[in-house]
Structure formats: structure tokens, C-alpha cells
Amino acid sequence: MSLRGFLVVASQDASSRDRAVELAEAFFTRWGRGAPEPLCLADVVAVCCDLRSNRNHDEGPSHANVGRWQILAFDGWLENAHTLIDELGLPATAADAVIVAACIDRWGWTALDRLFGEYAFVVWNHQAKSGYAVRDKGGVRPLYCAEWREGVAISNLPGLLARLPQVGEAIDWVAAAEYLCDAETRAEATLFAHVRRIVGGHALAFSAAAAGPRVPYWRPATGVVRCRPDAAAEEVRRLLADAVSGAARGAAFVGAHLSGGIDSSVVCIQLDRLVRAGRWTADRAAALSMVYPGEACDETPWIDAVATRIGLPHHCFGVRFATLAELRRSTLVQNYPIAPQHGTAEAALLEFASSRGGVVLTGEGGDELFEPTDRALCGALLAPRDWAALWRWLARRWSERPPLASMLGKIRHAVEPCLPRRWSARIHRWRDPASDRFSCLDPRWRASIPAEVLRGPIDFPRGARTLSMGSTLSLDWSLSWEFYHRLALHAGTELRHPLSSVSLMTFCNQLPLALLDGQEPRNRVLLRAAALPELPSEVANRVGKAEFSQPTLPILWQRLAEQIGSAPGTCLDLAGAYRVRLPAQGERSIWPYESLLSFHLWWSMRAPHA
User: Fold this and answer.
1) In this predicted structure, what is the pLDDT of residue 272?
2) Can you say whether the dihedral through the CA atoms of 293, 294, 300, 301 is positive or negative?
3) pTM of the full predicted structure?
4) Once rounded to an integer, what is the mean pLDDT over residues 9-32?
5) What is the pLDDT at residue 26?
6) 130-135 and 144-148 beta bridge pairing
7) Is the separation of the CB atoms in 424 and 459 below 8 Å?
8) Which one, of 138, 135, 78, 142, lies nearest residue 509 by Cα?
9) φ and ψ of 33, to 5 deg
10) Quick one: how far is CA 282 from the chain centroid?
11) What is the rounded distance in angstroms from the CA atom of residue 335 to the CA atom of residue 329?
């Protein structure tokens, strides 16, 4: 298993490298978890640290050396590790870092096409004195870089890069404004002006002299795959089994988060099948659930329906929010805002998995994975065999609008996802020309934002949580993965997302609309079929999910009030700028509250140094 932080610095200046090692070791020591592991080579140094809060299982080396290639740092897990081990002739217990190094040594650059899973790693070529920083195809594991005249630094922790004196903690005010508006638009931007994100499916080439281009090494497959529904369901079943098996590999304990929805239920069922097939031991697996007695969002009936169908031990936990003091300390240590805050309500569940040195498998990504992209919808227009499915899909979108909504609004809601992004943005500006996502900002802050950013369209209806087989690979969803990674670092427990499997995503993205849609709500035909017969009918036929804002918002608002009251005054008066905005969002939306609270926690602790 893996939950590592790392810093890699390539520079011809020996003093810069030595200083980077000192800063990285001091940064990781503050976590109070694993001991930093430095690796010093000519022109490049790397410091890695195990950030799990409980380490009762050896996760393998932080570094690996095979042939010409040295893995300087590796964080994550390989979904197809077993297949690669067989192809390479490696021991069955080979660590993922060793597998990656062996792949690159045998197949060179094309080895990246063979890697699937969640990973961020840095590899160095001894002979060429150059290397690559690689982020996984789906952008699940974070990766960042910073450049200066004499070198380049790479890390999966932006706050660590900002601590380097050559980089600094200067704020990117445009990124800060977008963060608070929950509307980030620039794929490479972070809250630090000189720290940049390496996006999913890209690799950064670098040497001791300078960083090179960010090269895309993978793109989603296009085209349509025609097959029978039973064949498609069987392929989805196989891909799901491989994804869950890969996510469980190397862990001392695997807890599947069972929330009562189809996505989490399918992950639990797949884990139970591994146990029944003898590929995993029952004492190292369990279903873990959050319950909210007396609240409208309690999903105990659906959770119990699944738990009684599978043989996994089942543990339920009540809400325990991380305290404000715990959040402040974690924010201070990470040196970056921690979000989403509402995830800390699951502190008891995460602590249970952490106490066993385990990982938690989540169903995140399933809703988005099985929704059609605009490309699939436009393709259906050109395929007469798909017209009936397209009509059913449009009718469903129509029915989602309130009965009293305007006719024009219903048409727009139904048709808009089929349109290119620029047309969708024009419709939004025409429909609501007076809207301004930055109207709540302090005027002095707003004046520093480029005009093109203020005018730029934000595609809210096409964001991360709607039509997302395509947006799973977009900035919106990549930011969500990064938020969950920071939450995992806070809890010291690794979260893995089997439904983010690029193999599964690619296959589903190529299926025609007629096969995915049918007459079922939410286009979940194949996911249901893959989980039968264990999936209960009451869960399989669910159309919506519970809204968790009811128990979450009061504590978030209380913490926000406490933080605003105790925060030192700033020249931008962030609290005053946003007090008006938040109530207007409506009580069902927790994201603006989370963004503001996490930003305030971070800002109040860094203000003396700003």
C-alpha cells in the first residue's frame, strides 16, 4: 500500500540540493509519522516519506533501480500489477516502484501506455542525466512542479514546493478567487504563483539544467464499440474485478465504503467476490458504513440490504467531525487548504481502517463514469439505431426540471449537454447576462484579476458531477481527486478509487448510447448487470442519493463563524467579501462553505508571512 509524500530536486547547484533535503526532512518530520528517506545522486536528490498514521505492513521501497532507470519517488498503486509481473518475469511480491522501473527499462517511453492505476512517480536516467515526472492517466494522484533558473523541483505536495526558497509562497490571486468561487478554470494553476500542476495523462521532462515540456502520453480512445448488451456487461464485470483486485493488492486490510448507492455497493460486491474466490482473506476485508440516525440522509435500509447479501464483516459508524484544532494542525502541516471539509464527518470510519494499517475503497466516480459525453450524444444524432435511446435520454432530462419551469428552460436543460462547450457558455451568458461569479469579491482583489478571466465562461451544468465520462478526465474531476488526497493525508489512511479505472472508463466511453441507456434511469444498466445477483433490487432501482447537507451544514457554518471571529484582519477582508455570497447559494450546497472554511484556515495561519 502507499500514501507517500515526496520531493525531487534536480539542480547543478549542490547547495540548493542540500538545502532542499533539509527543508523536506523538516517538512515531513512535522507530520510525526514515517521517517524521511533521502536519496542523493549526482545532480538530483529525492526525499520520500510514508505518511500513514499506522504502518503495520511493509509497502515496499520508496526507490527502485533497474538498468539505466532509477525510480526517485513513487506514490500510488498499479491496477494491472499482476499482468506486468507475469510479462516481466518479476517475483509475485515485487513492489509497484520496481515494476514501473522494469517496465521503462524494457519498453522505454511506450511503457507508460501499459501502466494503469493511480500513480505519480519521478524516474531518472543515469546515462542521459535526465528524467520524467509522470501523473496517471486519469489524474487521480496529484503531481506538481516548480522551476527556477538553476533547477526544477517536483512533488505531490504543493505546500512543500512553496517552502523552497527558490519557489516561495507568493499567492496566485486569480487562482485564489477561483478557489473561493468553486470555479477553477486553469488546469495548471495552484494557489501558489510559482507552483504548477502536472495534469493527468502528462509527463514532465526535466534535467539538472531546466524543465522541458509537459508532454501528453495518453489520450482517451475515440470511436464507438458495437457489442451485445450481455457481452458489454461481462466485460464491465471483468474490468471491475481487475480494478478492485488491483486496489486491494499489497494492503494489510481493505475496507469498502458502503453508502447505500449503486457505486459503493458494486465495489463491496466485487471485494466480496474476491474473498469467496479465495483471492483475498475474509479477516482482511470488511464493509464500512456511515449512519445518520434520525436524519433524512440516513441510508441504513439500503446499506443493510446490501450487507445481508454479502459475506463481508460489516461495521457502522456515527458522525465524528474532525475538530477545528485537528483541521488547523493538518492545514498548517500540509501548507495548503484541506477540502472537502464535510469528509471529516467520516473520521471514525477512516480511523478504523487506519488502525488496521489498511486502505479504504470508495465508489467515487461511478455516477460520472456511466453518464454519456457530449461526443456520445452527438454521435447518436448521426446513428438512426440510437435515435430512440437519444429521445429517451432527452425526455429524462426534460422530466428532471420542475413542473413549473419555463418551456424554454426545459428545452435548454435537455439539449444543452449535446452542444459544444462554447455554445453552452453562450447560452448561459444569454440566459443570465447579469450574472457575475466574481461580484462578491473585494474590489481591490477583483482589480488584480485579468479581464479575460472575469469574462471567461464557467461550465457549471457540465462540471464534474454531471456528464462525466469525459469530465472524469477533466480539470473539474481532477481537482476532486486532489481534495480527497488531502483528506487522506489528514486522516493518514489511503483512499483508493476502483471506479476511476481508465480501462473501465475507456471501454464505457466507447459504448453507444443505445446500449448504455435503455429504459433505465441514470444509464446504469451495465453497472447493475455486473453486480447481479448480489445487488438488491431496492438498491439497483434507486434513482437518487441522499443529500448530506442537513447534518453537515450546521457544523460547517459554526466552524466558519468561529474561524471568521478569531481570524486576524487582512487587507482583503475575505470574511466581509463572502458573508453576503454564502446564504445566496442555498442550504443544499455545501461546497461554497467548504471552500471558504478551508481557505480561511489556511490564510489565517499564513497571513503573518504574506
Assistant:
1) 95
2) positive
3) 0.88
4) 93
5) 95
6) unpaired
7) yes
8) 138
9) -115, -110
10) 28
11) 10
**Cβ atoms within 10 Å, residue 177:** 23
Q: Are the C-beta atoms of 77 and 96 separated by less than 8 Å? A: yes
DSSP three-state, residue 569: coil
Residue 184 CB contacts under 8 Å (≥ 6 apart), including other chains: 175, 178, 475, 479
Residue 592 burial by Cβ neighbours in a 10 Å radius (0-12, 13-18, 19+)? buried
Rg (CA), the chain: 24
Coil, helix or strand at residue 131: strand
Give kind and range of the element (H or E) at residue 378.
Answer: helix 374-381
Give residue 569's pLDDT.
42
Q: How confident is the model at residue 412 (pLDDT cuts 50, 70, 90)?
A: low
Residue 581, class by beta-carbon neighbours within 10 Å (0-12 exposed, 13-18 middle, 19+ buried)? middle
Q: Are 365 and 496 in contact (CB under 8 A)?
A: no
Q: Please name the helix (run of DSSP H) or strand (run of DSSP E) that holds residue 379, with its range, or none.
A: helix 374-381
Distance of alpha carbon 44 from alpha carbon 42, whole angstroms? 6
* Helix intervals (H) in 11-80: 14-29
**Is residue 132 scored above 90 in pLDDT?**
yes
* Res 203 pLDDT > 90: yes
Distance CA 102, CA 456 (A): 45
User: Which distant-in-sequence residues (6+ apart) come within 8 Å of 283 by Cβ?
Assistant: none
- Tens-digit pLDDT profile for residues 429-439: 555 544 455 55
Phi then psi for residue 254, to 5 deg, are -125, 120
Main-chain dihedrals φ then ψ at residue 153, nearest 5 degrees:
-125, 145
Cell digits of residue 107 = 519498453
Q: Which residue has the higher pLDDT, 586 or 120?
A: 120
Show the beta-strand stretches assigned E in 462-529: 494-496
pLDDT of the residue at 521: 44
Question: Among 341, 302, 250, 347, which Cα is nearest to 545's?
Answer: 302
Q: What are the Cα distances from residue 319, in Å, to 110, 292, 347?
A: 46, 7, 8
CB 290 within 8 A of CB 319: yes
Q: How many CA atoms lie within 13 A of 105 on its CB side?
A: 18
Q: What is the mean pLDDT of the segment spanning 560-576?
A: 53
pLDDT of residue 524: 66
> Would you state the pLDDT for residue 413?
65
- pLDDT 10s digits, 80-108: 999 999 999 999 888 899 999 999 999 98
